[in-house]
């Protein structure tokens, strides 16, 4: 079996969705400082401190983030973050418009796959490949409408993933994809990468969140396991 990393790197200065905490990485102690503290002449420990948003980098959302009565990340079913997944190709859709239900239907059909209840569906838009690290990253990408997000939820999808900063279109002030996730008590995963390596395939997906008490979301290490 082949393991594919679908996660972005975490580093100070990384691009973070507006409104969220920028990432800072600070040295807690160096090897030399630790050796002075412990008196050891053979071994020193080094460690750093992270200040990062629960929604920094590749991450999944707790329902509570967009629905006050919803479950926080630590109380959501783990099955929402791992399991059978498909990745559909939406890379032909321009950033100037949103993803409509017909686009999803066509993409699933062209993939040769089907959506099963409990599935995780990842959307390959090509945005990471084209625009990561540029000024367009946070502003110019396609996203789901209310109706297209509802179409996925009604198929039984429990986690909607995308290779962009959000599952919604950046011109949508209502964050319609998140509204649907709240209505159906499901999660979404944002800031994925390398989806070109799993597009039109079915595979085993893992994107487990940290067990953050009352968390609104969590950074994850998302991977795909393919049976070659």
Textual characterization of the structure:
The protein has 228 residues and is of the alpha/beta class. Helices cover 18% and strands 22% of the residues. It is built from five helices and eleven strands. It has helices spanning 31-38, 101-111, 127-131, 146-154, 176-184; strands at residues 2-5, 24-29, 47-51, 59-61, 82-89, 120-124, 159-162, 187-190, 202-206, 217-219, 223-226. The strands form two sheets. Strands 1-11-9-5-6-7-8-4-10 form a nine-stranded mixed β-sheet. It has a two-stranded antiparallel sheet with strand order 2-3. Helix 5 (176-184) links the parallel strand 7 and strand 8. Helix 2 crosses helix 4 (146-154) and helix 4 runs parallel beside helix 5 (176-184). The model has no long low-confidence stretch (mean pLDDT 97).
Give the SSE string: EEHEEEHEHHEHEEEE
User: How does the helix and strand content classify structurally?
Assistant: alpha/beta
Summarize the biggest pleated sheet: 9 strands, mixed
Name the beta content range.
Answer: 15-25%
| Intertermini distance | 6 Å
Number of strands: 11
């Amino acid at each position: 079996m082949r393991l594919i990393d679908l996660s972005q790197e975490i580093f100070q200065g990384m691009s973070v969705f507006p409104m969220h905490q920028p990432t800072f990485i600070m040295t807690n102690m160096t090897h030399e400082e630790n050796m002075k503290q412990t008196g050891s002449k053979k071994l020193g420990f080094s460690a750093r401190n992270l200040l990062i948003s629960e929604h920094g980098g590749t991450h999944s959302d707790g329902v509570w983030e967009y629905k006050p009565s919803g479950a926080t990340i630590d109380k959501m079913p783990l099955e929402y973050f791992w399991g059978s997944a498909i990745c559909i190709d939406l890379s032909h859709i321009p950033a100037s418009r949103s993803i409509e239900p017909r686009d999803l239907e066509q993409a699933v059909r062209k993939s040769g796959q089907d959506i099963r209840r409990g599935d995780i569906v990842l959307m390959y838009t090509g945005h990471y490949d084209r625009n990561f690290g540029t000024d367009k990253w946070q502003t110019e990408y396609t996203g789901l409408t209310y109706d297209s997000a509802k179409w996925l939820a009604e198929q039984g999808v429990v986690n909607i993933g995308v290779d962009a900063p959000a599952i919604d279109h950046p011109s949508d002030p209502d964050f319609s994809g998140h509204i649907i996730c709240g209505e159906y008590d499901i999660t979404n995963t944002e800031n994925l990468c390398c989806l070109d390596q799993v597009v039109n395939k079915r595979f085993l997906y893992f994107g487990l969140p940290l067990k953050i008490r009352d968390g609104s979301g969590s950074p994850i290490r998302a991977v795909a396991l393919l049976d070659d």
